[in-house]
Amino acid sequence: MSSCSNSQTSEASNSGQETAQQKDKQIDFENAYIVDVRTPQEFASGHYEGAINIPLNTVEAHLDEFEGKEQIVVYCRSGARSGNAKMILENAGYSNVINGINQSNLEKLEDKQK
What we know:
Helix content is 46%, strand content 15%. By secondary structure, the chain is an alpha/beta fold. The protein has one domain (2-113): Oxidized Rhodanese, domain 1 (3-Layer(aba) Sandwich), CATH 3.40.250. Strand 3, helix 3 (80-91) and strand 4 (97-102) form a beta-alpha-beta unit. 25% of the residues are buried.
């Protein structure tokens, strides 16, 4: 039975990833509010063009900055911190949040949409 349970868990995770990837493909790069949740030092070393820096540990203190945004895209270096930022924002009531994973992923998605 445990293998059945693991299989279902694995399938649920995979379908969740597909859903996230489908959402990523729908990023409105012209109007999305793109937020780099890395540290200011990491941000200064290079970031996605047009992104703003709100480090993960300050997202809750800056919730008002996300209000009225049609689409919010968060990213970091590996997708872990941006995943946490996405959860924080969704727990605060935002439903239009996409984990863009990292700068490279965002650039690839933008190129595919052109």
